[in-house]
Design a protein that fits this description.
alpha/beta, Urease, subunit C, domain 1, TIM Barrel, 15 helices, disordered N terminus
């Protein structure tokens, strides 16, 4: 096979990890599903991918993984979350977006968010994501330097964005320093092979036009992603219309912010011409169906965006509004939500949703040249799913099972950048027990500080 032609010289045959015997879902155009597969990993890349004993005998491996009875697939990519907000999981539920933000989340963050919370909260989020099959994610929050440190320790791949908002925040007490803190963050955290820095303006209703423009200048100068919550709810659109005379999308176009560097979270309340604008300017969209449902924000027009060629990825949002980081559950919700909202069971089929959670999200984050599919030369970011479960038997269609039957707990092994970070459900880069203990302690501190308890 073409995938192992390069291995004719015996000096090239030693690999770090060899995975044998599973069914590999590559998500590449050709040979999408490979039975009895063999995957050779050397360094941080996939060195060979094919099938059968002949390929297996070509290699001498340092570590062997028997994947019989399992599905091997690209790691899931969470296109939008706020990792440290695991510390606020369940703190304020069953509320509309603006009440949830202004009466509960913003006050709780103001009193409780510090470096310790962000560091341990991010570690816990990474543990939860790894254990449910996520290998890369996009984050936006405060004290993002602490998040950067935590993610580096876990070995995850990420795009981490310093949060910016036009009122005093836990890490920037004087909003006039926002841009300097943002630039310092970009300067301090460039050069990592696994983690890219970015900037996150919370929303058009919490950031002034000057802030929005200046962040645009920074992200353009440093060639980093620009994250924002956009048209998340009808109340947001109404508020921006009253203040600016335009919808959020048209407002950003006026400010010259719409381009292929912008990653817009939610995009629930869009008109036809706004969808056309997002497509025209190459804006990327992060879809967060569970958060949008829970806050009753609405149903984003994802099929319409996809039909226009908009790059759409799937995200969980933060645990304060979801309340978990399980991308398998998010896939299930994404598929069913759009079917029932449109009365059409053919909308958002299982294959489309799996692609959205892998190569789609990778494209949104600018990582699709590295991850999102399994093929030789790409980074070795992959997960192994144990299919020997009652709820996964029998198996007729892999895509269907991944969306409608698999859950995060079925993931047994996770490899990121060629390194084992979880094997047989045991985390190898995170002290899970210690991190859980630390976040429980932080939770008790938060509870004591709540005025509404």
């Amino acid at each position: 096979m073409a995938d192992y032609k390069e291995y004719t010289d015996t000096s090239d045959r030693e690999v770090d990890i060899l995975i044998r015997g599973g069914t590999t879902l590559t998500l590449r155009a050709e040979e999408e599903i490979i039975e009895d597969s063999v995957i050779a990993i050397k360094g941080n890349r996939i060195a060979a991918l094919g099938k059968g004993e002949r390929l297996r005998r070509l290699f001498k491996e340092n570590e062997f993984i028997d994947a019989r009875g399992c599905v091997i697939m690209p790691g899931l990519v969470n296109a939008h979350t706020h990792a440290a907000m695991v510390c606020f999981r369940g703190l304020a539920d069953d509320l509309p977006l603006m009440d949830w933000l202004n009466k509960y989340i913003f006050p709780a963050e103001s009193k409780n968010v510090d470096k310790e919370l962000v560091y341990f909260g991010t570690l816990l989020a990474c543990a939860e994501m790894i254990k449910s099959g996520t290998t890369a994610f996009c984050d936006g929050y405060f004290f993002e330097g602490e998040a950067f440190q935590a993610v580096r320790e876990t070995g995850m791949r990420g795009v981490l964005a310093q949060g910016i908002i036009d009122f005093p925040t836990p890490d920037v007490k004087d909003p006039d320093r926002n841009l300097q803190v943002a630039e310092d963050f970009l300067e301090a955290h460039s050069g990592s092979s696994l983690i890219s820095p970015a900037l996150f303006c919370h929303a058009t209703y919490t950031c002034s036009s000057e802030t929005l423009r200046r962040v645009k200048e920074l992200t353009s100068r440093y060639n980093t992603p620009y994250l924002i919550h956009l048209s998340e709810s009808e109340s947001e659109v109404k508020d921006v219309m009253e203040k600016c005379g335009k919808t959020p999308v048209h407002y950003l176009r006026e400010l010259d912010i719409l381009d292929n560097n912008l990653i817009a979270g939610h995009c629930v309340c869009l008109t036809e011409d706004e969808m056309d604008l997002l497509a025209q300017y190459g804006v990327k969209v992060a879809h967060n169906p569970e958060s949008n449902m829970k806050l009753a924000s609405g149903v984003a027009p994802i099929p319409e965006l996809l039909s226009r060629g908009v790059s759409v990825g799937l995200g969980t949002d933060g645990c304060a509004s979801n309340n978990n980081l399980d991308m398998f559950q998010e896939m299930d919700t994404a598929a069913k939500l759009h079917k029932v909202s449109r009365g059409d069971p053919t909308v958002m089929n299982a294959r489309e949703v799996v692609e959205m959670a892998t190569i789609g999200s990778a494209g949104v984050l600018g990582l699709d040249h590295k991850v999102g599919t399994l093929e030789t030369g790409k980074k070795a970011d992959l997960i192994i799913i144990d299919m020997n479960k009652p709820h996964l038997t029998p198996l007729y269609n892999i895509f269907s099972h991944l969306v409608y039957a698999v859950n995060g707990a079925d993931v047994t092994t996770v490899i990121i950048n060629g390194k084992l970070v979880m094997k047989d459900r045991i985390l190898l880069t995170i002290d899970e027990e210690k991190v859980i203990g630390e976040v429980r302690r932080i939770g008790l501190r938060i509870k004591k500080n709540l005025d509404y308890n």
